[in-house]
């Protein structure tokens, strides 16, 4: 239940200033001024519940890692604070950096298609990334950047308190599934502290490898059953009931029941970047949008 909404414009584009200078900026983004040049259909996504607004303001001025120097806008996340489903991607791309919203490029279009396939709209789910600022050139976020930004995601999860989290891509997957390969565990259902987590490919992967489109749709098809009639029920019961309700797929994932919660190594201890790259396989392409992005 939303208590009130604050219209939060995306963090304004900033000059490439030293971090020290950025520290001196005040929270100038929390205004009601007309903020964006975003397409009209995206503007409602800038409505942020008051419970998230302080965190968004903090992120807007964050100088914690070098990405603060190269970002145009921070991309804290979008969606209702009481969302039952939370999607966690990896990092902003070019369009996200320009507009201050997650998943507004071609991958976002496919994400909308995936949500529509299960009867959801973008505005019903909460979407965030593991890093809130765009890595230059769409490179992978560095371990120190993941570590610096991890606290923001933890706080988002705590505030939104979703029933189900779908990780999109390798970096968000690694928050719960250390050392796993996404090609092996996508679509698996796990429980952590009463919350269901299901790893999935990043939508951008399907842009590069169309064969993954159907794979992602099958994984998304599991979400309604995970969300239906569940109010933080015991994890074992949840996993069991969903496993029975899941439509068989050509490559059925193994359910991971009651997986011990790993130490959040991505956020606490840097993930060796070389290992992450080595995990990439032919069916596990780069997660970001291909270069030619366009608006919704
Ligand atoms: S990526 Fe995260 S930690 Fe780094 S500057 Fe942006 S908000 Fe701060």
Care to give the gist of this entry?
With 296 residues, the protein is α/β, with parallel strands linked by helices.
Attribute tags:
296 residues, alpha/beta, Uracil-DNA Glycosylase, subunit E, 7 strands, 35% helix, globular, binds iron/sulfur cluster
Secondary structure blueprint with pairings:
Elements: E1 5-7, H1 19-23, E2 47-49, H2 53-60, H3 67-70, E3 85-89, H4 94-99, H5 106-117, E4 126-129, H6 143-160, E5 164-168, H7 170-173, H8 182-185, E6 190-192, E7 195-200, H9 203-208, H10 211-220, H11 223-227, H12 235-245, H13 265-268, H14 273-279
Parallel strand pairs: 3-4, 3-5, 5-7
Antiparallel strand pairs: 1-2, 6-7
Relevant CATH superfamily:
Uracil-DNA glycosylase-like domain
The shape is globular
Broad CATH class? Alpha Beta
Task: Characterize the quaternary organization of these chains.
Answer: single chain
Fraction in helix: 25-40%
Report on this structure.
With 296 residues, the chain is of the alpha/beta class. The protein has one domain: Uracil-DNA glycosylase-like domain (Uracil-DNA Glycosylase, subunit E, 3-Layer(aba) Sandwich), CATH 3.40.470.10. Helices cover 35% and strands 10% of the residues. It contains 14 helices and 7 strands. A 5-stranded mixed beta sheet has the order 4-3-5-7-6, sandwiched between helices. A two-stranded antiparallel ribbon has the order 1-2. Strand 6 and strand 7 form a beta hairpin. The longest helix is centred in the middle third of the chain and has 18 residues. The protein is globular and about 40 Å long. It starts with a strand and ends in a 17-residue tail after the last helix. The site of iron/sulfur cluster has 13 residues, from helix 3 and helix 6.
């Amino acid at each position: 239940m939303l208590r009130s909404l604050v219209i939060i414009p995306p963090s304004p584009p900033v000059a490439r200033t030293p971090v020290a200078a950025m520290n001196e900026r005040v929270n100038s983004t929390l205004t009601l001024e007309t903020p964006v040049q975003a397409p009209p259909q995206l503007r409602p996504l800038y409505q942020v519940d008051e419970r998230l607004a302080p965190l968004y303001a903090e992120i807007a001025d964050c100088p914690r890692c070098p990405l603060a120097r190269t970002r145009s806008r921070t991309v804290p996340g979008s969606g209702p604070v009481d969302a039952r489903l939370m999607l966690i991607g990896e990092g902003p791309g070019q369009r996200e950096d320009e507009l201050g919203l997650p998943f507004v490029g071609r991958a976002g279009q496919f994400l909308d298609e995936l949500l529509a396939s299960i009867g959801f709209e973008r505005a019903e789910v909460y979407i965030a990334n593991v890093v809130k600022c765009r890595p230059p050139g769409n490179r992978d976020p560095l371990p120190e950047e993941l570590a610096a930004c991890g606290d923001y995601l933890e706080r988002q999860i705590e505030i939104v308190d979703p029933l189900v989290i779908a990780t999109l891509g390798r970096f968000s997957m690694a928050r719960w599934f250390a050392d796993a390969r996404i090609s092996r565990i996508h679509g698996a259902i796990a429980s952590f502290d009463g919350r269901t987590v299901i790893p999935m490919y990043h939508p951008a992967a399907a842009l590069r490898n169309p064969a993954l489109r159907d794979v992602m749709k099958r994984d998304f098809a599991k979400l309604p059953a995970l969300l239906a009639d569940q109010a933080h029920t015991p994890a074992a019961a949840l996993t069991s009931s969903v496993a029975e309700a899941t439509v068989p797929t050509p490559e059925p994932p193994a359910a991971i029941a009651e997986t011990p919660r790993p130490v959040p190594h991505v956020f606490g201890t840097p993930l060796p970047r070389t290992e992450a790259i080595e995990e990439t396989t032919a069916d596990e392409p780069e997660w970001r949008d291909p270069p030619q992005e366009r608006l919704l």
